[in-house]
Inverse folding.
């Protein structure tokens, strides 16, 4: 493995000392080293890159570099990119048919976008939710997921062959069962779909003391974290697989979420750690809380939309609608 120039491992003689003991000049040593050692090291590195790329077929050069550094290789991402390109190991992406999963044309109340300027400083301060489709052999299934925005951990999910509100409610119940939520300290952000705006879903949020938040119309960037998870799921699990039925898809996706995404996958936003690893480390250093929590820290408190600069505030109502003081839409 390569080391930074001048660094000597513990218990290993330096080049200068070895040359002095053997009566060989340093120039002669380096001429001999230059003739064989770099090629041996490059071959060993290329072999390891190939093995990691086969074990993680959806990893790009940045994550392969992070894995190599975890194993003790001192290598930069440009070199890994070159090796992967030469060996045809770079990931390829394809665009598939996308059936609609969001129906925002309803008469339910649309809630303000509270997450737009919220930066969580611990777990259970901001959850993001979304729904996507999964192609089965003879039909489509739909997957609802809830992520903790602080650690990117998937805390709740559910699959069904319909888009009824019970799909999103099942994922919410799983999230509530796996986390202890402090009333008033958590924001739940989603799109404006009827599954999240309907009375049953909002009532369950309110019963748990969770504040609902919704994206602006036609703006997927407001829920970018959930969209990013769905892209990862499609690229690394769903695409290229042929699920026979809902049961087979549910088992496979459950394994990916619980064992690969939450426990093994390296996230660049988490300094190339898995969500569970990130939560454990931040919890041990006191940066995150697991279990009941106090109100959010000042940096994570919700800003008063009325205090935003003119024109910078989020859009709260449907197009052509206004909000009265209670937050309900007015025709």
């Amino acid at each position: 493995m390569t080391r930074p120039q001048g660094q000597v491992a513990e218990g290993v003689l330096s080049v200068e000392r070895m040359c002095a003991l053997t009566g060989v000049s340093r120039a002669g040593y380096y001429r001999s080293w230059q003739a064989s050692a770099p090629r041996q090291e490059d071959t060993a590195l290329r072999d390891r890159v190939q093995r990691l790329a086969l074990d993680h077929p959806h990893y790009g050069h940045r994550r392969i570099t992070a894995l190599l550094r975890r194993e003790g290789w001192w290598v930069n991402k440009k070199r890994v990119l070159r090796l992967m390109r030469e060996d045809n190991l770079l990931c390829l992406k394809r665009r598939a048919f996308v059936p609609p999963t969001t129906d925002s044309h309803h008469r339910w109340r649309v809630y303000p976008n509270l997450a737009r300027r919220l930066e969580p400083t611990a777990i259970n301060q901001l959850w993001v939710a979304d729904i996507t489709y999964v192609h089965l052999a003879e039909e489509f299934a739909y997957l609802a997921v809830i992520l903790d925005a602080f650690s990117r951990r998937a805390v709740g999910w559910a699959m069904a062959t319909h888009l009824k509100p019970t799909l999103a409610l099942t994922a919410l119940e799983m999230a509530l069962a796996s986390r202890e939520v402090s009333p008033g300290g958590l924001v739940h952000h989603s799109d404006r779909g009827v599954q999240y705006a309907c009375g049953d879903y909002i009532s369950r949020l309110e019963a748990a003391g969770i504040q609902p938040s919704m994206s602006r119309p036609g703006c997927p960037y407001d829920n970018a974290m959930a969209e990013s998870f769905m892209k990862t799921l499609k690229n690394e699990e769903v695409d290229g697989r042929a699920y026979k039925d809902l049961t087979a898809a549910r088992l496979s996706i459950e394994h990916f979420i619980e064992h690969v995404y939450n426990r093994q996958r390296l996230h660049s936003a988490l300094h190339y750690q898995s969500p569970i690893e990130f939560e454990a480390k931040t919890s041990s250093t006191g940066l995150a809380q697991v279990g009941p929590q106090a109100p959010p820290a000042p940096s994570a408190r919700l800003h008063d939309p009325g205090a935003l600069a003119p024109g910078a505030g989020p859009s709260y109502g449907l197009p052509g609608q206004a909000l009265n003081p209670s937050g309900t839409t007015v025709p």
User: Anything to note?
Assistant: The mean pLDDT is 78. DSSP finds ten helices and seven strands in the chain. Strands lie at 126-135, 140-148, 153-160, 186-190, 210-214, 322-323, 329-330. The longest strand covers residues 126-135.
